Amino acid sequence: QVQLVESGGGLVQAGGSLRLSCTASGRTFSTYTMGWFRQAPGEERELVARISWNGRDTFYVDSVKGRFTISRDNAKNTVYLQMNSLKPNDTAVYYCAADPKATGWAALSRRGELHYWGQGTQVTVSS
């Protein structure tokens, strides 16, 4: 059974940092693109960051550029999201995802076609 399990969420004050982890089990994801989405109450799910299988190519949504860093350790089947300078509008449930496709993730997500999802971890940033 393939599982993606997120951890590292929590409550933090504005300006603080958190590091999210997503560990995969049930298969190796070393050839998969992996990424992070987030969904705030009443909002659509948003692609936050994505990283290629070898870590060389990354994507960030404009609102997190310069503050968030995505990385991966294929030996540990884990992807990370380091979040610095957190803001109250970063508050959301953060979801890990994995898919063989390297691009088009926002559209794939809207169509429900991304292969694997985690259960989500809550990040709350207080002002």
SSE map:
Layout: E1 3-7, E2 10-13, E3 18-25, E4 33-39, E5 46-51, E6 58-60, E7 68-73, E8 78-83, E9 92-99, H1 105-110, E10 116-117, E11 121-126
Parallel strand pairs: 2-11
Antiparallel strand pairs: 1-3, 3-8, 4-5, 4-9, 5-6, 7-8, 9-10, 9-11
Instruction: Tell me about the largest β-sheet.
Output: 7 strands, mixed
Oligomer: single chain
**SSE topology string:** EEEEEEEEEHEE
Strand content: over 45%
Shape: globular
Number of helices: 1
What's the number of extended β-strand segments?
Answer: 11
Task: Please identify the structural class as seen in this structure.
Answer: mainly beta
Q: What percentage of residues falls in helices of 4 or more residues?
A: under 10%
Low-pLDDT segments, ≥5 res? none
* Separation of the first and last Cα atoms: 40 Å
Q: Give the rounded overall mean pLDDT.
A: 95
Rounded to an integer, what's the Rg over CA atoms? 13 Å
